[in-house]
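Two records follow; treat each independently.
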Amino acid sequence: MERERYQAELQVLSRRLPVNAYHFRNMETMCPEVLMAARTNSGRVYTLRIELANFPVSVPKVFVTKMLKDKNGNDLSGISGAMHTLQSENGQTRICHYGSGSWTPNVSIYKVYVKCRLWLEMYEAHLRTGHPIEYYLNHQP
């Protein structure tokens, strides 16, 4: 990510989130990322890891930093349209948040965060009801 874009992202995040809710790391390497705390309405806190290697040119990979389980106790580790997940990596559930057809370089890290936070709310609704996440969220192109 170019320095100017990085500064713009920091500015947006600092206006929208507490400074302790996000942490950029490895920004001068081939594997830059941001860790973000996401508190759901239930009070649970999840850590999101957003990979920034090709951001903002392409959709960043987003992971919950642990393996989530569905209502039946199964790992959310594979590709599932119904659950809006992609193939996990390193024991972390990967969230599908933007389709490549919906992505533009103008999308901010904050907007990615908001969509992932919404996914987490729907994940918790799934845990309560058993409905898949697609019951609550539409698919994007």
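The next record belongs to a different protein.
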Amino acid sequence: MNTEENNINNNQINNQIKKKKSGGIINFVPYIFILAIIVVVGMLAFPKLFFGDDTGTPTNNEEKPADNPQPTPQPQPAPEPPKSKFKIYDTTSNKRPYAISINNTPVAVKVQEGLNKAYIVYEIPTEGNTSRLMAVFKDVSDVTVGTVRSCRHNFMDYAHENDAILVCFGWSHYAQDELNKGGTDFMNGNEGKWASAFWRSNPEKLAHEHTAYTSLPKLIDYTTKNKYRLTSDDSLLLNYSAEEITLDGRSDAKPANTVKLPYGNITTTFKYDAKTKMYTKTVNGSTNKDHKTKEVITTKNIIITKVPYNVMPDNYYWNLKNTGSGKGYYITNGKYVPITWKKDSRNAKSKYYYSDGTEIQVNDGRTYIQVHVTSKNVSIS
């Protein structure tokens, strides 16, 4: 073979190789195109995977920085409930008081309970030169009171002036007539409707009439059952002072270390204790103590109101003439001053005034209101 033929053959071989290469590339073009489409779609669907987060939000492999970190809120203490201005009663409460008729027969004085939990205690003259107590309770609970005795019609006057529910165990026929007319919320343990609010206890083996007791929880329960009003918008009877009242600055003040009030078969005496600034109570010469707690009965204030009386038409029960005005005494911290009392009607509040006409203020503490007939003398020394 000559040289020219060899050149022709070589050219033919090279052309065939070029065609094979060109044909191979062309055969892969569709696959490359498809792959490119997949990549583009992936970048559009999942840009964070390819480019990261343009908004600054970290990918799963990055730690997320805190956005304006705030301090962890600390628990706040609960606000304190409003506090009472006085100790003797709760100035933040509008609970209605209970006025309970308590046995004061000489033989039954030793079984009295609950008097030191009352904020006002009345001693009220009754027929036969005797007396009963009427203790007024407000804002106290879980207190046993006794022994409970029958009420008289004048007891309603003192219950009304405190907007209190009257509690008794029996009644005079005059009290019964008035109470059954309505207008006074009451509970009588001698009636079946309220009998379960009372019970009998006789630790000193006394006669049956000296054995009835009740408690504030039972009275509150029966108040609800009888749909009596539980709250009161009425102002309190007495004008209390947050600052100590001494009476020292009054020209008409005199010493009151011993106060003696005869009622007939009972003589009530109060003796001042300068250390405690309280008066301790004795009855017929014996220290008056709570039968359950053995506490000596005490008071901070004493108000004496002198009232006339007449005997009712049955010629037995007394009627106290406790409306209008009269004379009396206010006693606290070892001193006493003369006062004037005024009561416009049986349901009205009693008001007490110094000799200059200003209303008296009483100290933060229990007050005994001694209703005392004008025919008997009071001794203060």
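Discussion point: Residues 1-8, 17-26, 56-62 have pLDDT under 50 and may be disordered. How would you locate this feature using only the token line?
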